[in-house]
Amino acid sequence: xxxxxxxxxxxxxxxxxxxxxxxxxxxxxxxxxxxxxxxxxxxxxxxxxxxxxxxxxxxxxxxxxxxxxxxxxxxxxxxxxxxxxxxxxxxxxxxxxxxxxxxxxxxxxxxxxxxxxxxxxxxxxxxxxxxxxxxxxxxxxxxxxxxxxxxxxxxxxxxxxxxxxxxxxxxxxxxxxxxxxxxxxxxxxxxxxxxxxxxxxxxxxxxxxxxxxxxxxxxxxxxxxxxxxxxxxxxxxxxxxxxxxxxxxxxxxxxxxxxxxxxxxxxxxxxxxxxxxxxxxxxxxxxxxxxxxxxxxxxxxxxxxxxxxxxxxxxxxxxxxxxxxx
Length: 326
Description:
Blueprint (H helix, E strand, L loop, with lengths): L12 H6 L6 E4 L2 E6 L2 E6 L10 E3 L7 H12 L7 E3 L5 H4 L2 H8 L3 E3 L4 H4 L16 H4 L15 E3 L12 E5 L8 E5 L4 E5 L10 H6 L15 H14 L3 E4 L5 E2 H13 L1 H4 L13 E3 L2 E4 L8 H22 L1
Parallel strand pairs: 4-5, 5-6, 6-7, 10-11
Antiparallel strand pairs: 1-2, 2-3, 3-4, 8-9, 9-10, 11-12, 13-14
């Protein structure tokens, strides 16, 4: 793949905000965000890049393939295929369309070695934790798929030297906690960070937050994070990178003073502002290795009343949305 010249600087927050009405959000000249309902995928490559001269990062939900294909075709051309797909991690909302896309484009899929059990059919992720609080998305989390998927011989481990195949100038950064082998992607030249779910810019535990995405910097989604000590260290690692712009798995891109001050606050006060006060994993993490889950702390039985309340809220939102469409 020919090295793409990175933009001199990441676009400012205001400039990014102006592009939010489009199907694809320009983060920099050669990085684009593809919003997919409650999650984002990213296209890395100059507009008009030829066949095998761009990369997809993450693959959304199971119904996301069509929008990703359309966005890639518009940006790079209808016959242009990626050199590969890079996964920040293998949770269901980041790998939903990956198998379909990898087969369509006949391309490899790269992930951290500790993510391999979850994308090669060997192990499910640790169970989500509905007792962390924060809203309906947390309460409904036991219903979310936790894998595994099986990519077979299309799954490849990222290089140990932290380079990323066919992405000169980029490196992967280990940011575990939200998942055992979670990574972020970082480019030193313009300090662009593709953070996956190590940080997010919306309150993902709330259904309204996930849908409306008000801009607020947060730690990883609480209901699917099984190792809070690792998540804290990962956030501190991200803060040390001093990114100029953060493109996250959930929420809108963030940059400037808002990002700088938000990261400093999270790094300094992670346990107070990001770590849940209650939950299955707050005192003891899930234990995992290259084969998947080894052991789990005892589950906490959630309050049935909270489930009923969450169901009522979701039902009211769906009913209201249906009436508006009618």
